[in-house]
Design a protein that fits this description.
The complex is a heterodimer of chains A (220) and B (194).
Chain A: H1 2-16, H2 25-41, H3 50-67, H4 75-104, H5 106-118, H6 127-150, E1 170-175, E2 179-185, E3 190-195, E4 200-204, H7 205-214, E5 217-219
Antiparallel strand pairs in A: 1-4, 1-5, 2-3
Chain B: H1 3-10, E1 14-19, E2 26-28, E3 31-33, E4 42-45, H2 46-54, E5 58-60, H3 68-80, H4 92-102, H5 110-137, E6 143-144, H6 150-156, H7 160-174, H8 176-183
Antiparallel strand pairs in B: 1-4, 1-5, 2-3
Helix pairs in contact in B: 2-4, 3-5, 4-5
Classes of the chains: A alpha+beta (220), B mainly alpha (194).
Amino acid sequence: MEDDENLHALLDTQDDEENEIELSPAVLIEVMEEAWLNEKFSPEILPNKIDFVELLLGQLSAMEENLENVGDRDIKKTLHLLEVDRLRFLVGSYLRMRLEKIEFYVDHILKQENSRLENREDLYLTEAELTFARNFKEGIDNHFEHLMRVHPTIPVDWKNQVIQPNIHSFVFSRSKTNIESIIIDEGNDDETVYVNKDSQMIISYNSVSNLVKKGDVQLV
Amino acid sequence: MDPEEVEFLGEKENVVIVPTFNYGVIHLIAGDIGPFRAGLPIKVPLWVAINLKQQQTCKIQQPDWMDVENLEVLKENEKNAITFTRMPNEHYMALTKALLKFAPDDLIRANEIRTLVKDIWDIRMSKLRSSVDLLIKEKSSYAAVDNLTILEINSVRPLLPHALDQIHRMKKLQGPQLGTNSSAGHTSSYSFRS
């Protein structure tokens, strides 16, 4: 919990000085773990955490560099290498999950990103992810165009069938603070509930999506 | 989520080991561990403990809650309580499994621990199944799942969220007359606690 407070304090300073994020490595790992779980369970792609990813990767390469000078029989070396492997798995798994989502929902995600661009909002994808998404879409579109030319009788409205994530899908959540009201979509009329810190629920994702992005709710 | 990934999270839990070697502080990225003094207990993450144990350079101390007497109390409590009791550790299953696998010689009455923890797990799973059954029958839109550990949540993940999603879709299609029915008298806010 203490770490959480530190984190919030640190994140506040982040707003002031754009490019400088100062986090203790331990907190950094925690942020990464939370991002990993959130990304794993949220049906839609979440705002990217590339700053944290890069910081952590920086830590990892620095550590690997240092280890080159350490003898192989040193106890220290095995433990450090093991930790580096664990963290690489974490970052790798996180990035892979995002790519999977981009591939699956490419049309939907690009549409959303375009409207964010128009409204001058922060993009969810990183620059590299955006390039990947655009190339991927181009490849897919070309491929289908090509296929369809062989069967000209097939109607062309398949292009308008965009695969969208189901934001109504149910998720398990843990609240990190007291939350005044969560709106429950009852299908027909809505209901609001008060949620205590640390309580766990199974709930529709769209009821908590904003809280997840804000960091008040953790998906588990 | 794969069970291995839940284990991965559990391996961050701290355990106390008694090293058989001397070594200075090791500056891991996640924080410092050490200094190690032969014979002096020290707290380290589980993954470190397992690694050292595999090299036979430490003994792992059994966590207090893993005492057979304590587990028996926990089991009784779990049996008598209608709701889920709070487990001594979020990753009690992962910890027990890891210690039984890698350090059975460091545990006191290891076989009884195995049986008791399995019993507690079974009681909780049967509770979970009947709660889920009720939840589905009441067509709830949300439920509190306090005190469930991640591994337990993970065990219902393949089915429960999808079932609720289907119910939600049906509710939407059914129209308002049934909707008012479900929101009357708070039956919709069925809680695992009640």
